[in-house]
Amino acid sequence: MTLPIPSTVSPARLAIQQSLSQELYQALREQRMVPPLRDRSLDLTIDDAYAISLGILQHRLASGEKVVGKKIGVTSKAVQDMLGVHQPDFGFLTDRMWIEDGGCVRIADHLIQPRAEAEIALILKHTLQGPGVTTADVLAATDYIAPCFEIVDSRIQNWDIRIVDTIADNASCGVFVLGAARVDPRLHDLAALKVKVYKNEVFLSEGEGSAVQGSPLAAVAWLANTLGAYGVTLNAGDVILSGSLVPLEPARPGDHFRLELAGVGSASVSFA
Fold first, then answer.
1. In whole angstroms, what is the distance from residue 8 CA to residue 23 CA?
2. Where are the beta strands (DSSP E) in 74-114?
3. CA dist 268 to 11, 171, 230, 247, Å?
């Protein structure tokens, strides 16, 4: 997958993007943190950040990974306030990020500073291409929804991120877990769906679908239209993570997380 490079990008700017893509990709593979990109005196723009993210994806694809979907990040006010990032972003999901429901993630093998968040995942049956995608289009294109944990992670030191940092770092992607349930989205008001999260079998947090830009459908429409500006589509079969309904929670070895999405189903994941 390659995004068109704007003709206005100079060779020097392109070299900076490629260098930072390589740096973040190596940090991902070596499970280490790097200083925030915004502090490098490079005047990075959001377009630079997306180019860096796409560069990381090219490295992942070259290593044999396959894209299985996309994610929206920083959609809810709770997460925006927590991270100090006040607009959504997007990233790519690959097959190596997909963890079996009920599985155990060895943090030392996969992650650096993970945090768990509960989401509603949409699995598409038709392709969506912006601009002009509406919530009705998203609903018509969705095959089913599933309960989901996204385990976000950051290669930026101590989660000290702003919008350029998280976009460049593939929207702080880590791994994700889909619950076993597959439910027709037309059977529910997605904005009103309620989730409860438990950590080590103790109630932790709760939220509703309306937390993500008013509705997961609106969040996915935003994603389709934003990606469309970069020449990227949401494809049939894609898993789309629509954003966290609850505040992020750090995950440490020995922790077990479970969520219950009312009327839909559950998902769980453990850490070692």
1. 24
2. 89-94, 98-99, 104-105
3. 46, 22, 34, 17
Q: Is residue 160 part of a domain?
A: yes
60 is a domain residue: no
Phi and psi angles of residue 72, each rounded to the nearest 5 degrees, phi first = -105, 135
Total domains in the chain come to 1
Asked whether residue 229 carries a pLDDT value surpassing 90, the answer given is no
Tell me, yes or no, whether 33 lies in a domain.
no
> Is the CB of residue 203 less than 8 Å from the CB of residue 82?
no
| CATH number of the CATH domain containing 143 | 3.90.850.10
Mean pLDDT of 223-244: 92
Residue 45 in domain: no
CB-CB neighbours of 83 under 10 Å: 22
- Closest by CA position to 151, among listed 82, 99, 89, 216: 99
Provide the 10 A C-beta neighbour count for residue 203. 9
| pLDDT attached to residue 73 | 78
Alpha carbons 184 and 167: distance in angstroms, whole number: 31
| Full residue range of the structural domain in which residue 161 is found | 66-271
> Omega into 147 within 30° of 0, i.e. cis?
no
| Cβ contact 83:156 at 8 Å | no
Angle (CA) 167-24-3 rounded to 5° is: 55
The closest alpha carbon to 102, from 227, 268, 271, 272, belongs to 268
**Mean pLDDT of all residues belonging to the chain:** 92
Report, as an integer, the average pLDDT of 136-140. 98
